[in-house]
Design a protein that fits this description.
The chain has 3 domains: 3-94, Helicase, Ruva Protein, domain 3; 137-143 and 273-538, Purple Acid Phosphatase, chain A, domain 2, CATH 3.60.21.50; 171-260, Beta Barrel (OB fold (Dihydrolipoamide Acetyltransferase, E2P)). Helices cover 25% and strands 21% of the residues. It is built from 15 helices and 21 strands. It has helices at 3-14, 21-28, 33-47, 56-64, 115-119, 126-129, 151-168, 227-235, 295-305, 312-319, 349-361, 394-397, 426-429, 441-451, 510-515; strands at residues 18-19, 53-54, 77-78, 134-138, 177-178, 190-202, 208-214, 217-223, 241-250, 253-260, 279-283, 321-327, 368-372, 402-404, 409-413, 416-420, 480-483, 489-494, 497-502, 523-528, 534-538. The strands form 4 sheets. Strands 4-15-16-17-19-18 form a 6-stranded mixed β-sheet, with helices on one face. Strands 14-13-12-11-20-21 form a 6-stranded mixed β-sheet. Strands 6-7-8-10-9 form a 5-stranded mixed barrel. Strand 6 (190-202) and strand 7 form a beta hairpin. The protein is globular. The structure holds 2'-deoxyadenosine-5'-monophosphate (D5M), fe (iii) ion and zinc ion (ZN).
Length: 540
């Protein structure tokens, strides 16, 4: 692919948009596709609506628009219907970059990566933190997407490979074949195979039919009969990787008897040698800049961390706090959703980060602050997400006790391995997971651990970057899995892993009111890193 085509595709994907196959072909036939894309992205920025999939006609119209005129109104922007059945699914391995997230996320593209971001290495402060018990495992990668039509095929191939390896490490998956190796034409032949869920259909009588695939083919799996197997079928998410046990019926069709998820092994953690109790304070979704930011509560929280509480026991915990982890949405951002400006108290993104840094600067230097991006932050909208742009968040980058990481990040703090992610995919998985809801996001987080993936479903609200290695696979198994995004605080324990959703500092927004989302703000989970005992401190 010509260099400028590569740049063009990269620009589109990094801005969170997708190209339809015909747009891809059209751009590839042009001498300067990168300039065409640049113009298109600018026009989207000014358009106030949010397309996701850019098709050929869009670029054609941009190109034929009068050069001096406003190109905003030109071109057709196609937004795909959301939902797994909105369009016929093709094999994941044949998917181009046309399937993708719909809706609100695309608006975040109003924010272009600042130019300086491309030239300068991002300072992170990591060197300063090593002496403080901070060991980074991953989270600072900046992977350049090749920009080829085959990127998604390679991405899903890696997802299947990584999750198959995890599955095969289980004793009960031993000897499993892959989906395409299921024998054709043999009747009532016992089979056990691994595949990625390509599609799932539920029928009125309760029967569920799932297609499981690998690169070389797919097999149709029918779930019917007792409640136990139907329950397993109900839990299957599209695009996750599982092992199915069953019997062949005819052709390449199988009746399922059991499903095995990659899952995490039971673990008992050896506490760090130190008996010196160090605490990590977990928070997220501060939304500085929003009119609904609960400033008084947040200031009370910071006051507690500075040791200003009345209760000696609370001051004791504060004095032993070594880490403050912020799992995204530190600020409310700008241009994240339509008419957001009406709900902003601080309309300038630079000012929002300046205020954030002023707040965090009031904390003692001994508290190391780890920050990852959320969908409201100044960052690339696709997952994995590199750290917040250093241009916008410069005041944070200049703080010696702040470590800016990407989403997801694996980082060891005081002997405990944290998996940090903002948790955007919770919006995608919660509606599909039985027994999960937005009032207890920690339950869905446990399901993500079972799937061993941070964003199993592709094509809903969470846009994924087709990096050659699927960094959203949960590996290694963390001691603490920390996310936010849902604005509801909740804690669970699953097979020795502490699962925390850290809530918010924002009261109910207009959107949340209309959608019936009730936030649980100003509650802060605090973890004793030696015993893993947790406390929930309420600052409302
Ligand atoms: O998201 C906070 C929560 O509210 C999260 O569960 C998504 C939901 N939310 C907020 N705004 C929207 C819109 N416009 N569409 C769908 N869902 C939404 P946060 O990332 O803080 O905005
Ligand atoms: Fe949020
Ligand atoms: Zn969020």
């Amino acid at each position: 692919m010509a260099g400028n085509m590569k740049a063009a595709v990269e620009m589109v994907l990094n801005s969170g948009f997708q190209l339809s196959p015909d747009a891809f072909e059209y751009l590839a036939s042009k001498r300067d596709p990168d300039r065409l894309v640049e113009t298109a992205l600018k026009s989207i920025k000014g358009a106030g609506s949010a397309p996701l999939v850019l098709d050929r006609s869009y670029f054609e119209a941009i190109e034929t628009a009068p050069k001096t005129g406003d190109t905003r109104a030109c071109g057709r922007m196609s937004t795909p219907e959301s939902g797994p059945d909105a369009e016929p699914r093709t094999s994941a391995f044949a998917r181009g970059p046309m399937r993708g997230a719909a809706g609100s996320q695309a608006l975040t593209n109003d924010l272009a990566a600042p130019r300086s971001e491309k030239r300068t290495a991002v300072p992170t402060g990591s060197a300063l933190l090593e002496a403080d018990g901070v060991r980074l495992i991953s989270g600072l990668e900046r992977i350049t997407i090749k920009g080829k039509a085959s990127d998604f095929r390679d991405y899903f191939r890696d997802r299947l490979k990584s999750l198959s390896t995890i599955l095969r490490s289980r004793a009960d998956v031993g000897g499993a074949t892959t989906a395409s190796q299921v024998p054709d034409g043999l009747k009532w032949h016992k089979v056990k195979f691994i595949g990625m869920v390509n599609s799932k259909k539920e029928f009125r009588d309760g029967t569920v039919v799932v297609e499981l695939e690998d690169e070389d083919g797919l097999v149709k799996v029918t779930f019917r009969g007792d409640d136990a197997i139907k329950k397993k079928a109900a839990r299957l998410l599209v695009d996750e990787v599982v092992c199915v046990l069953g019997a062949t019926r005819n052709g390449s069709s199988v009746i399922a008897e059991d499903v095995i998820w990659p899952d995490i092994p039971y673990r008992s953690r050896t506490p760090p040698a130190s008996s010196d109790h160090a605490y990590a304070v977990l928070t997220s979704d501060v939304h500085i800049g929003s009119k609904t930011f609960l400033r008084d509560n947040f200031e009370r929280f910071l006051g507690w961390l500075r040791g200003e509480a009345d209760e000696p026991r609370l001051n004791e915990i504060a004095s032993r706090t070594k880490y403050l982890v912020i799992a995204g949405d530190l600020v409310d951002g700008v241009g994240i959703y339509p008419n957001q400006e009406e709900e902003l108290e601080v309309a300038d993104l630079y000012d929002q980060y300046k205020i954030a840094a002023e707040y965090l600067s009031t904390l003692p230097d001994r508290i190391k602050i780890i920050i990852i991006p959320g969908n409201h932050d100044a960052c690339r909208p696709t997952l994995p997400t590199p750290p917040i742009y250093s241009d916008y968040a410069a005041p944070l980058y200049s703080m010696r006790n702040v470590l800016m990481l990407g989403d997801p990040s694996f980082v060891n703090l005081g002997g405990a391995t944290f998996l940090l992610t903002h948790g955007r995919s919770l919006d995608d998985v919660i509606p599909f997971l039985p027994d999960c809801n937005f009032r207890e996001p920690q339950r869905a987080m446990v399901e993500l651990l079972k799937s061993r993936h941070i964003a199993p479903i592709y094509g809903e609200k969470t846009p994924l970057a087709p990096e050659p290695k699927d960094r959203l696979v949960i590996d290694p198994v963390p001691d603490i899995f920390h996310a936010g995004h849902v604005h509801v605080e909740g804690i669970a324990e699953y097979r020795g892993v502490l699962v925390v959703n850290s809530g918010t500092w924002q009261s109910q927004t207009k959107y949340q009111l209309s959608a019936g989302i009730v936030p649980k703000p100003s509650i802060v989970p605090v973890v004793d890193l030696v015993t893993m005992k947790t406390y929930e401190l309420n600052f409302s």
